[in-house]
Amino acid sequence: MDDPRRYAPATLRNRDPILAALRRLLPASGTVLEIASGTGEHAVFFAARLPSVAWQPSDPGAAERASIDAHAADAALPNLRPALALDVTAPAWAIARADAVLCCNMIHIAPWAATLGLMAGAARVLGPGAPLLLYGPFRQTGVPTAPSNEDFDASLRARDPSWGLRDLDAVTASAKGFMREAVIPMPANNLMVAFRRA
Q: Which domain of life is it from (predicted)?
């Protein structure tokens, strides 16, 4: 039988810096909804190190959800829930409430409609003061884009013209009902962007 587990090399490089930011930004307890959990490696790593929160992974892809659940089965963590089928552009999500939303490395590998859907959905499921956290590469006004990110952007647009690095000001403007709280520089020219539900 084929092993459904998938692996993303970048996870090993970025998980510790992301975890350090999450320790500062997440609530002490409650449900963290992870959007576009991909392989599931982040979900297992974060859930193991943040045992006081319930970690809810999600992904629109069946193969990705199988990978998430296979990694989760190996880890056997009581606070890690089965992966939800969740398309951010859907008008209703498979979860009604969360205490935080985390989305790593999605909005540049998806059409702009996915960013708009993420913001609308997060506004529906989060209560006042709850965080929406975005991790990945962004363009920033007045800040030169790293050559490696320019190359990455070109490769993304070659794969799909609707993909590419997003302008942080445009992302912030799309976050209706949120206040941008922090922009935290991360390794490899990435950012952690923290919003709070108004």
A: Bacteria
Instruction: Tokens for 7, please give them.
Output: 């692996």
What DSSP string describes 86-98?
A: --TTSSS-S-S-B
Q: CA 162 → CA 41, 110, 121, 170, distances in Å?
A: 27, 7, 21, 15
Angle ∠(147,153,158) on CA atoms, nearest 5: 130
Q: Which helix (H) or strand (E) element contains residue 18?
A: helix 9-25
Identify the CATH class of 9-197.
alpha beta
Rounded Cα–Cα distance for residues 150 and 165 (Å)? 8
CA 59-186-53 angle, 5° bins? 50
74-103 pLDDT, tens digit each = 999 999 999 999 999 999 999 999 999 999
